[in-house]
Amino acid sequence: MTGFGFRNLKVFFKDKSAVFFSLIAVFIIIGLYVLFLGDVWTESLGELPGVRALMDNWIMAGLLAVTSVTTTMGAYGTMVQDREKKLVKDFKASPVSSHSIVGGYIVGAVVIGVMMSLITLILAELYILSGGGGLLPAMAALKVLGLIPVTTLCNSAIVLFIVSFFRSSNAFATASTIIGTVIGFLTGIYLPVGQLPAGVQWAVKLFPVSHGAALFRRVMMEGPLETSFAGAPAEAVTEFQDMMGVTIRFGDAEIGTAASLMILLATAAVFYALAIWKLSRKSG
User: Fold this and answer.
1) How many domains does the chain have?
2) Cβ(104)–Cβ(8) under 8 Å?
């Protein structure tokens, strides 16, 4: 399984266009923020001290949540190509079990997702630093490093289940485009959760990736929030956090960090089980 996963890593990174397009949603989000969204939010919150650093951390936290979705999607493109070219049948004819083959795809995708997320984190910190913000404190950085594999496991499981239905590169490319387009809305990046209609807010809050984004925001925005809202009423901080997707609430009940982590891990277990069952069948 490990050897097969290493093979998938080499296939993915050998195709430079696959690497680029797996990050296209990330590039779009950064471009929109630099050219448009950043100015909109900093101007609307202009009275707050350190507002640029606050919003830079907000967008970069959302970006980390998105990266493991799009990059694992790109990684699973190797599996779709193998199915399209009937290479999967050759693999299954070998002494390697079907579960090991699927496991190899998962290992490759998770490693790619974690690697690309770490690169995104480094670039995000450099961007925040260039805008006058500060680097993450050591403890916050460790928390983010711990969240990256958890969110990658969850997101890669969801993506694997989706990709398990595709047998052609054309269908996969179409799905990748759609997911890359809507992921910014589902994680509250293009439009904050609090500004969406009530029904849409519920849908977004039920989306596991939103919990990953909230966890990243909670850690990365802790320091900037203290600076920007120093002396402000607690209600103002709570209202801002709810609107920007830093916290997730269902009615009056706030979903805490532990609950969000459990949602991510449970989602990973369920969707991996479903995807492995489907792909391990003889018809898969």
Assistant:
1) 1
2) yes
Residue with tokens 């579960």: 99
Domain with 96, as residue range(s), is 2-280
Q: Residue 255's beta-bridge partner residues?
A: 248
Spatial contact of 255 and 142, defined as CB atoms under 8 Å apart: no
Angle at 157 between CA 268 and CA 94, to 5 degrees: 120
C-alpha span between 241 and 236 (Å, rounded): 9
Taking the CB of residue 182, how many other CB atoms lie within 10 A of it? 12
CB 192 within 8 A of CB 246: no
Average pLDDT, consecutive stretches of 10 residues, N- to C-terminus, the chain (284 residues): 67 75 76 73 74 90 92 89 70 62 86 93 91 91 96 95 89 86 82 83 90 95 91 88 91 90 96 88 53
> What contacts 24+ positions apart, CB below 8 Å, involve 115-120?
116/22, 116/23, 116/67, 116/68, 116/71, 117/64, 117/67, 117/68, 117/71, 117/148, 117/151, 117/152, 118/145, 118/148, 120/26, 120/63, 120/64, 120/67
Backbone dihedral angles phi then psi of residue 254, each to the nearest 5 degrees: -90, 135
Buried b (16+ CB within 10 A) or exposed e, 242-266: bebbbbbeeeeeebeeeebbebbee
| 3-class secondary structure, 232 | coil
Which residue stretches of the chain are H helix?
A: 2-14, 16-22, 24-32, 38-44, 51-75, 77-84, 87-93, 98-130, 138-163, 169-186, 198-206, 208-220, 222-228, 234-243, 257-280
